[in-house]
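Bumping my old thread because nobody answered last time. Still need a sequence for this structure:
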């Protein structure tokens, strides 16, 4: 009888989970323009699974994305570990309870003001010792507790408390950012107020997790800890390794048949994560199987076993994410990828863009100290700076051709007219929804400032922007629709416009009308924005003076030279890292028929440009801008799931090969692409 009741309760919980997830799904797919996945065939249909997800670039949105995609592709339900602080929040906490999240208390969330001031003990050259002034370390602090500095200068774990005015840190206060480290040194030298937090015993959380996994369920965790907006991964916390190994160890101790636990790395690859209608690719890596042997190793030497598994998880996460040492390097690598795929860019599915970024990043990290690589980085940086100076993007320069002023003006006029039509159609919904847009932007910016002030790892705190935009819209939009519906209902009833329809149906109809109007305006306005983006380079082309036209044309030649250098870089270094490089990028692969030009040919073009400098510049590529978010092309890529399900044993190289071969097949004449080119190359 008890088992029947538990089964009913679990079924009810899953029903609630699915309903809540459907609601959040609507929210996520409204915020994001494209959500793509790779490697979903790696998700086991049954048995215990831990999803380790990184980078944590989008606060609460990250979890919603992974939950929705795992449910859609495998039907499995994830229980996420969530910070106790978030679990106690009104909206977030209620949603977390409904999807069976497991709260975890973090010491940094419990920091409070300590008594007196602290100084660095200069007699200890290691920086581990602190001296207090009017402090009460003995009563307020404890070993393994936290002590932190104000102004987000960092927290350290306490190793031992000597007396009321002396304690020893496990590690000294340190920051990789020089400006932060300088502030830390000054504060500890002059004396500074501090914050303290007790040691948190999370044994009950681990027991909950062990029981959850023993039932063959699924767990989700962000091993970096809090969210951030850094271009590289933060050091992973050991909790995920302890949970996986501990769960296997508990099975061994209970003399049960050991069920291995699959730890699946999940990479979140965003394209402007904080922006409305941006894109994301979610990649599921090959599972790390934590088996009985690893459980015995954990029982023998816990620290070594945890470190070993954590290193493996870190390495596997880097295989499904695109990271770089800093933001500038990331911008350079993305520019290199654009230059390398010039002739085929519009045919590349979004997941393959992520794969190419990752491969370039790995090649660069290995050979970044080579003289030719340093020269390439400097050249690409200069090229990016010139683009910013002219207010152009790389894809504008890529197919820039010479044409007469009249033809360019006709193209501009046609596109401007189309833009006006689309924006006119979207205007009603924009006006109706504008209070939500304005409020969401203002609140998200305020939360961004607060998050940046409270963190020592965030760069611009962009990781909280999309979350707060969605939270504000989730609360304010329904209230706004109700307000509009009441106004519409009162107007219709008072004027006796629909006398035979009940007030309830009139209200419901007004609500649906407001909802559909704003959604239709969103879709139509999205197209209008794409047309708007194409107007600036056309305008630049028309109003440019002779000198400007020469400079822009020379920028095109500079781009051609860079494309040759980039291709040389890829041909020289990538084959030594990726065994499948020649198969994928060779004569029969993705990069076939790439057109090269010698320096002499480029110089001839330079002379021709100067002779014909009176000719205006025409951006023919404006006709090929993907107006409808590449849906025709990317729908083809969604069919790869069928291939994945029948070839789940293939290795990563084969996976990438299939993706690239598919992209090559599209480039060789797929009917969807021909249709798209017919639609968008309207100017020739």
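Sorry it took so long. Here it is:
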């Amino acid at each position: 009888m008890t088992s029947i009741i538990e089964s009913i309760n679990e079924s009810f919980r899953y029903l609630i989970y699915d309903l809540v997830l459907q609601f959040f799904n609507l929210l996520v797919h409204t915020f994001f323009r494209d959500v793509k996945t790779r490697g979903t065939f790696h998700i086991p249909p049954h048995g215990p699974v831990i999803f380790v997800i990184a980078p944590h670039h989008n606060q609460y949105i990250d979890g919603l994305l992974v939950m929705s995609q795992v449910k859609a592709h495998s039907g499995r339900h994830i229980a996420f570990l969530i910070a106790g602080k978030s679990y106690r929040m009104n909206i977030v906490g209620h949603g977390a309870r409904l999807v069976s999240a497991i709260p975890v208390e973090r010491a940094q969330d419990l920091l409070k003001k300590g008594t007196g001031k602290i100084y660095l003990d200069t007699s200890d050259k290691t920086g581990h010792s602190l001296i207090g002034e009017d402090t009460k370390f003995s009563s307020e602090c404890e070993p393994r507790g936290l002590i932190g500095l104000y102004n987000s200068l960092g927290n350290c774990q306490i190793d031992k408390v000597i007396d009321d005015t002396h304690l020893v840190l496990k590690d000294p206060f340190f920051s990789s950012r020089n400006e932060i480290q300088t502030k830390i040194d000054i504060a500890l030298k002059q004396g500074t107020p501090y914050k303290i937090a007790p040691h948190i015993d999370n044994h009950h959380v681990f027991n909950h997790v062990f029981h959850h996994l023993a039932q063959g369920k699924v767990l989700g965790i962000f091993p970096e800890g809090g969210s951030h907006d850094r271009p590289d991964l933060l050091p992973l916390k050991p909790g995920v390794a302890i949970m996986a190994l501990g769960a296997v160890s508990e099975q061994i101790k209970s003399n049960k048949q050991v069920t291995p636990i699959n730890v699946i790395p999940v990479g979140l690859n965003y394209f402007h994560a904080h922006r409305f209608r941006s894109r994301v690719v979610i990649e599921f890596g090959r599972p790390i199987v934590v088996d009985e042997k690893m459980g015995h190793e954990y029982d023998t030497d816990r620290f070594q076993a945890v470190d070993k598994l954590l290193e493996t998880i870190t390495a596997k996460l880097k295989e499904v994410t695109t990271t770089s040492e800093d933001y500038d390097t990331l911008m350079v690598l993305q520019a290199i990828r654009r230059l390398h795929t010039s002739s085929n860019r519009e045919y590349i599915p979004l997941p393959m863009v992520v794969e190419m970024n990752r491969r370039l990043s790995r090649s660069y990290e290995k050979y970044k100290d080579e003289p030719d690589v340093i020269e390439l980085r400097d050249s690409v940086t200069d090229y990016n700076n010139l683009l910013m100076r002219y207010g152009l993007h790389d894809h504008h320069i890529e197919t820039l051709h010479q044409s007469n002023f009249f033809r360019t003006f006709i193209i501009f006029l046609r596109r401007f007219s189309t833009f006006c039509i689309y924006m006119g159609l979207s205007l009603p919904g924009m006006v109706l929804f504008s209070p939500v847009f304005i409020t969401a932007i203002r609140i998200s910016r305020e939360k961004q400032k607060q998050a940046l002030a409270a963190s020592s790892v965030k760069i611009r705190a962009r990781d909280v922007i999309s979350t707060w935009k969605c939270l504000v819209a989730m609360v304010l939009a329904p209230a706004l629709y109700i307000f509009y519906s009441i106004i519409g209902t009162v107007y219709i009833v008072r004027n006796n416009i629909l006398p035979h329809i009940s007030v309830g149906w009139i209200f419901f109809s007004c609500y649906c009308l407001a909802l559909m109007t704003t959604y239709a305006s969103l879709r139509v306005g999205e197209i209008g924005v794409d047309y708007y983006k194409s107007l600036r380079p056309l305008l630049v082309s028309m109003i440019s003076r002779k000198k400007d036209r020469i400079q822009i044309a020379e920028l095109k030649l500079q781009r051609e030279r860079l494309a040759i250098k980039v291709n040389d870089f890829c041909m020289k270094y990538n084959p030594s890292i990726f065994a499948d490089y020649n198969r994928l990028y060779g004569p029969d692969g993705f990069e076939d028929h790439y057109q090269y030009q010698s320096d002499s040919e480029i110089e001839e073009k330079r002379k021709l440009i100067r002779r014909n400098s009176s000719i205006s510049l025409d951006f023919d590529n404006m006709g090929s801008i993907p107006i409808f978010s590449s849906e025709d092309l990317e729908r083809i890529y969604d069919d790869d799931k069928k291939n994945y399900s029948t070839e789940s044993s293939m290795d990563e190289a084969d996976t990438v090969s299939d993706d690239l071969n598919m992209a090559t097949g599209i480039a060789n004449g797929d009917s969807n692409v021909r249709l798209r080119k017919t639609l968008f190359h309207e100017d020739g």
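The first strand starts at residue 32 and ends at 38. Let me know if any region looks off to you.
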